[in-house]
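hey so i finally got around to running both of the ones u sent me last week. sorry it took forever, my laptop kept dying halfway thru and i had to restart like 3 times lol. anyway pasting them below in the order u listed, first the sequence line then the structure token line for each. didnt double check formatting much so if smth looks off just lmk and ill redo it

first one:
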Amino acid sequence: MPLPHICTILYFIFMLRLPAIYGGPVAKPGCPNMCGNLAISYPYGVGSNCSLDPSFTISCNTATEPPKAYLSIIDKQLIEINETYIRVKYPNLVSVCYESEGDSYNDSMSVNLTGTLCSLSMYTNRLTAIGCDDAVLQSNGTYNNGGCSAFCEEHINTQTGYCPFDPTSIGTGCCQAQIVGETGLVGAELIDLSRKVQRRKNDNWASATSPPVVRLDWIAGLENCNQAKLNPTSYACRDERSLCVDVANVSRGYRCSCVQGYESNPYLLGGCQSCSIARNGCQDQGGKLSIPFPFGIGPNCSLEPSFEVDCDTSANPPKAYLSIQKKEITRLNLSQDYPTLGYACYNLSRESLLRRKSKA
């Protein structure tokens, strides 16, 4: 009697879906801003002339209905572009099937994004193996640095593939391991532990119509902000109202953002557009400083007198002052539970400051 058929698959799966941040597609002038249902914002673009870097080049397959976008560096379908990450459909990386007793396998694969501006997100992806009595070893191309094992109970040939999100729970015929280390190159090796073929294939393990979705984080450049600004030709933050932001928690890279009070696309000249942040009918700029409500220029534009701002238009450019203290505001941050103000004080001359410092 022939033995039941079994497949073991290995793939990366994206565990968390976040909403897109771009308010609308803002492509490079003269380039398409849509491919089928996908909105395309620069630095991504259809074709090399429409993207900032080969890492962001998209091919649009118009033979399908609707057309589908593919990220050229890995030739995988692109389904979302966000200002810090993208999502791609990524079918199983290793799939091993066998039908006769004693067959074994030892298969491996790798995802190599080295040299690109994209990397596998280690916090939202998981290396996942679905099968029975199998192990997956993760490597960085030099040595193994993680992995997990998937086991099935004896005499159980259905309901395999249960993989709980809780890492402390044991699944049935499934295991997951966190992506660790630098994520430009991630290798995986699938190993048959028991060499037994005693469980039936679960057709839901690897659906060709619904492949796993993987998150790739992206950066605008490999340097930090101070280094990137030294080369105006390659510097990605193009709009005059854009800011360079060093990427936190990683060893490299920067991204661009519009200054407070502006939004849209900082990678294009004129890409940062003013958004309404002040009370209706009130001025939202004090020189180069954006003034968001509850602060406001004038007594009728703030929540209360403590937040009232004066704008000195005799200066060039105009300067904003907090009315209650008559101090110039150099920074106004509302991203915390309370506003953070930066003041500029000029009561002491430079020579007096130097004398005080020398006495300290």
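and the second one:
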Amino acid sequence: MPQLNPNPWFLTMLATWLAYSLIIQPKILAFTTANPPANKKLTTPDTTPWTWPWT
């Protein structure tokens, strides 16, 4: 089964992952977000129980 032979594509895959890990990934992670998350005060929701008319 020729698809199980890693010889022609293993070095290509290895070089691609090394390029991604060492070159491309640090450049992508260096970007800052356009809208950084703000520290908002957490509001607690109103938890009053529902009054059913038949109880």
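quick thing i noticed on the 2nd:
The first helix runs from residue 10 to 29.
anyway thats it, ttyl
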